[in-house]
Amino acid sequence: MNIGIFGTGVVARTLGERLQTAGHAVRLGTRDPAQTRARAEPDGYGNPPFAAWQAQHPDIRLGTYAEAAAHGELLVNATQGAGSLEALRAAGEGNLDGKILMDIANPLDSSRGMPPSLSVANTDSLGEQIQRAFPGVKVVKTLNTVNARVMAYPREVADGEHHVFLSGNEAEAKARVRQLLRDDFGWRHVIDLGDITTARGPEMYLPLWLRLWGALGNGRFNIKVVAGEAA
Ligand SMILES: NC(=O)c1ccc[n+]([C@@H]2O[C@H](COP(=O)([O-])OP(=O)(O)OC[C@H]3O[C@@H](n4cnc5c(N)ncnc54)[C@H](OP(=O)(O)O)[C@@H]3O)[C@@H](O)[C@H]2O)c1
How far is the CA of 105 from the centre of ligand 1 (A)? Predict the structure, then answer.
């Protein structure tokens, strides 16, 4: 399948590589391809510049957000939360309509220092903002609760005995994403939380995720949901 991924950071690269290896044709989208290719410094997280990664992954093409969107039968939002709506506007509504958008972004706000807070919470979420702004796209919020490596290689952590979530209005879209998570990444345990308003919970988990990261000193962890018998 043709897959368009919005973003050039560690999430886009990790998922892009994994999906391409699984047999999909992946295209990444960025604001300005020439500028992204010309970057010579590691990004803010210490990841090598895009060109160094691209040299090792020549089959994964880079284009504008609109080119990645036009290419993809299925789309992935792996942009910074603060820029996600802008990225999707650049992708163009016509290139989004009718397609599934796996939304992995978190609405993190570092403007008041670290750890970041959330720019939207409680009664709304980034997933809902995207769905409202682009009613024709089928938003499925998922994978935002784990780090990039765990997203793509869940079985490297506790043999995959941990959970990830789905939120979205379309049952068929969620079923398609569940299949992709299982077949291409190896996810065993996927909980469908319900419609897109349920994205609030996974997004509001981020303050705990960030504190766990600090406490464990390692981002390769996840949570396992255990349930008792119904009373
Ligand atoms: N890193 C993780 O392990 C992890 C785990 C869970 C969830 N997430 C979430 O996944 C998303 C991607 O994370 P990341 O660490 O890979 O990269 P990131 O540094 O959070 O985001 C990089 C991407 O965001 C784009 N971007 C930033 N501002 C923009 C704007 N104003 N308009 C359009 N695009 C803009 C950049 O575009 P250019 O290419 O043009 O620079 C770049 O492609 C984030 O929302 C993050 O919270 C990350």
Answer: 7
